[in-house]
Amino acid sequence: MPSAPPSPRRRAWIFLATLAAGLAVGVLGHHLSGDQAWFLALPGAVALVWWFVGTPQDCDRC
């Protein structure tokens, strides 16, 4: 049985934590290697978390 989706407040915190983690990976990788491609960790982190937290059924209302 699927679990209940997170509340909007919890989703906001998850989103902010995801942005912070992706940005931290990007900054650290850029600092260590000098390659700006590390900043692709930001959209990658958002996509990965969406895979586990997102509920496409919420988009059906639009």
Topology as a string of helices (H) and strands (E): HH
Structural class: mainly alpha
Helix content: 55-70%
Per DSSP E runs of 2 or more residues, the count of β-strands stands at 0
Give me the oligomer status.
Answer: single chain
The overall pLDDT, averaged over residues, is 86
Low-confidence stretches: none
Task: Please describe the biggest sheet, giving its number of strands, its sense, and whether it closes into a barrel.
Answer: none
End-to-end separation in angstroms reads 26 Å
Shape: elongated
Report the radius of gyration as a whole number of Å.
Answer: 14 Å
Count of helical segments?
2
Architecture blueprint of SSEs:
Elements: H1 8-33, H2 41-53
Describe this structure as you would to a colleague:
The protein has 62 residues and is an all-alpha fold. It has two helices and no strands. It has helices spanning 8-33, 41-53. The longest helix has 26 residues, at 8-33.
What is the structure about, briefly put?
With 62 residues, the chain is mostly helical. 63% of the residues lie in helices and 0% in strands. The protein has helices at residues 8-33, 41-53.
